[in-house]
Amino acid sequence: MRREGARPSPGKCGPTQAWPFGKPKPRASSAFPDYQRAQEPTRHNLNENAAVIEAWIKGPPPPGDGDVKDLKGTAPNGEVSGSSVSKQPPDLNDPLSGYKTGGIRAEAQDE
User: Fold this and answer.
1) What pLDDT sits at residue 13?
2) CB 87 within 8 A of CB 26
3) Beta-ladder partners of 110
């Protein structure tokens, strides 16, 4: 329940029954050739960051409901893990390179 006059933080919708932490607003979308290929970089990064993840879960203090730990990693052996389209333009000289303004014309970038 919200306080009188309270507003959701910028970029987030307020909590609802379906979305108790606010409706997610993706900043990017990724594609993979198949399900198995999508799982490989996830497994790799979970294994590579196991100690960091475990320490974050244990605390102190333990993470609160809805807290997120941003972990970035690389694909095994420097491979391309997938293709991604960003909401905001990754190329500042090309405002249509992000899907917010470029829509279906936005170009995917290898990751």
Assistant:
1) 60
2) yes
3) 83
Cα 108-109-111 angle, rounded to 5 deg: 130
Distance CA 111, CA 107 (A): 13
Q: Which of helix, strand or coil describes residue 66? A: coil
Structure tokens at 102: 């470029």
Whose CA is closest to 107, among 38, 95, 59?
95
Task: In whole angstroms, give the CA distance from residue 12 to residue 88.
Answer: 16
Tokens of 4: 């009188």
What percent of the chain lies above the pLDDT cut of 90? 3
Identify whether the C-beta of residue 82 lies closer than 8 Å to the C-beta of residue 38.
yes
d(CA 40, CA 31): 13
- Per-residue confidence band for 92, with pLDDT thresholds at 50, 70 and 90: confident
- Tokens at 30, concatenated: 């990724």
